[in-house]
Amino acid sequence: xxxxxxxxxxxxxxxxxxxxxxxxxxxxxxxxxxxxxxxxxxxxxxxxxxxxxxxxxxxxxxxxxxxxxxxxxxxxxxxxxxxxxxxxxxxxxxxxxxxxxxxxxxxxxxxxxxxxxxxxxxxxxxxxxxxxxxxxxxxxxxxxxxxxxxxxxxxxxxxxxxxxxxxxxxxxxxxxxxxxxxxxxxxxxxxxxxxxxxxxxxxxxxxxxxxxxxxxxxxxxxxxxxxxxxxxxxxxxxxxxxxxxxxxxxxxxxxxxxxxxxxxxxxxxxxxxxxxxxxxxxxxxxxxxxxxxxxxxxxxxxxxxxxxxxxxxxxxxxxxxxxxxxxxxxxxxxx
Amino acid sequence: xxxxxxxxxxxxxxxxxxxxxxxxxxxxxxxxxxxxxxxxxxxxxxxxxxxxxxxxxxxxxxxxxxxxxxxxxxxxxxxxxxxxxxxxxxxxxxxxxxxxxxxxxxxxxxxxxxxxxxxxxxxxxxxxxxxxxxxxxxxxxxxxxxxxxxxxxxxxxxxxxxxxxxxxxxxxxxxxxxxxxxxxxxxxxxxxxxxxxxxxxxxxxxxxxxxxxxxxxxxxxxxxxxxxxxxxxxxxxxxxxxxxxxxxxxxxxxxxxxxxxxxxxxxxxxxxxxxxxxxxxxxxxxxxxxxxxxxxxxxxxxxxxxxxxxxxxxxxxxxxxxxxxxxxxxxxxxx
DNA sequence: ACGGTTCAGTGATACGGTTCAGTGAACCGC
DNA sequence: GCGGTTCACTGAACCGTATCACTGAACCGT
Lengths: 335, 335
Known about the structure:
Two copies of one chain form a homodimer. Chain A has 335 residues and is an alpha/beta fold. The first copy, chain A, has helices at residues 8-15, 19-26, 33-46, 52-59, 75-90, 104-116, 133-140, 161-174, 194-206, 219-232, 243-256, 289-304, and strands spanning 64-69, 94-99, 121-124, 143-147, 155-159, 179-185, 209-215, 237-240, 265-267, 284-286, 311-315, 318-320. In chain A, the strands form three sheets. Chain A has a six-stranded parallel beta sheet, with helices on both faces. Chain A has a four-stranded parallel beta sheet with strand order 7-6-8-9, sandwiched between helices. In chain A, strand 1, helix 5 (75-90) and strand 2 (94-99) form a beta-alpha-beta unit. In chain A, helix 1 crosses helix 3, helix 8 (161-174) packs parallel to helix 9 and helix 10 (219-232) packs across helix 11 (243-256). The longest helix of chain A is centred in the first third of the chain and has 16 residues, at 75-90. Chain A binds a DNA duplex (30 and 30 nucleotides) through residues 5, 7-9, 17-21, 23-24, 27, 30-32, 35, 50-51, 53-60.
């Protein structure tokens, strides 16, 4: 039975009320209990279900939250997106997941599109937090930033990248690594990466010899990039700014017949579930994805429901030691 | 500038045309080239962008496609969802991704919700293809099934599971495995699994001693299930109906100090990118995810744009041999 | 008995497009 | 110069809900 959907008018007619009264009743507003019950019964009878489109047009609210991801090539970001999507669904909202492919220009375009799509709010993992369009966007709808901070948001779940970088680099240094290759996610035409700044500063502080390169998140691409770096045999360790990229290093090491951590140590960033399964397990910086998901969903819900207070949650990292980082031969513990 | 959006009426006024003419012009319908140009200019001038909500209400089309996934715990399904979502975005559509958590009841509820949300179509990875609500649903909107076949769909990308199972089991048998544990994804309160039927039939045909158990897709859960199975040390091989579950077997083997494939062989199903990175690499059945994504997107686009022909695409599997399956000691090649 | 509140419900309008039937003008062949 | 098409555009209805301003009735304390 491809039955035509019942409208609010039919319910009104069936109950002898006005459409307005039905509208109120179904949302539990300013009507008597008795009438509410009558309306509910009639609605059930007719199989009535309010049309979300019409509702959105009239009320200005769609029930949708935009989820703008930096790059879904990154498995960790995939998990994050799936988690947030689920969390929002529990709050009776839908997530519209979009992928910026690590491109700031596309990020801007997609943010625009999401706004045009009339989402009630956006959760953003900003590629370029300093971009000029953010503040403007934040004025027209509630934005929650995840990862890096953005000016004007309704709330933030910020990763303490400074601390994360320190954790990673200090660990490497403690084990004697000085020449370290750093692999950060490729971002098309980006000006400056906030996290990179921390890497530079921290390397300076620790007296490390850093060599920075960029890599896409995809396994094949990351493998290619890592291949070149490992083939040069310069660094004793590779610090990847995403576990996904570290996976590429593993693959490249396999290709080259290099052993991890025998020939080269690898440090990740994120702690994706698969990282523990590799041989050796990937030593990485853990951000507690569940906490991030919960915080993001909570902040977004609050903001979209008209919550006013701007909440700022800082996510603290933990070093998750597994087997991919070894002591440099001849290096004594302690220095 | 939180400017109020321009409406079609303002554009009409600016051009001296009627709103109807503007509507037609912007969609490139029955107006002179000259007028189209004039309208475009005015629209750009005013920063006009048609409101998708109002458009949806009037036209009955939302531009959204529902994506109903069986279980997003499964990393392979995550990749699939991300891929399809991207593909649809290229066709100027948005994907609404929902996760059924392997639960047929929830699958039904979500399908319902997606329809209520007025999506233009649905791409479904059915958990319970035989469920009664599918045909009814298919009558009210175009549905594309991915994986198993459903009655009444507008198109399908069907996996030849019969062939996939044959590939896997024959490979195991060729190497001398007879007692084989089969791990299929847990599905709450499901009646019968289509794929299981093939396993049974094929095991019968090949004279194998099959022991079927179910496992969730999540790594932790799958590990727990696999732990029990491996601890019993009965089977010489485990055939997992999803790479995600195989990952659990790897983890359990690690915990128990068992070697793969020395102590137990493991066979996967899907060929997730990470499967090649494990040690040893997971031997698995590859379905060519890119082809699936392309086919699903193509069929959905065709169906949503009013295409009429029902297309049926069959996806053929390939055996991807890596290192996780070994010959049973003492077994001669050929039998 | 009275003015003032609250309560339950109404009527009209707004939301911002799409679409259908219709209209005048231009154009066609003959 | 005439009926018939085609073209470019218009006016009005419509999609299905939310919400604002308002009303009549009941209820309040004095």
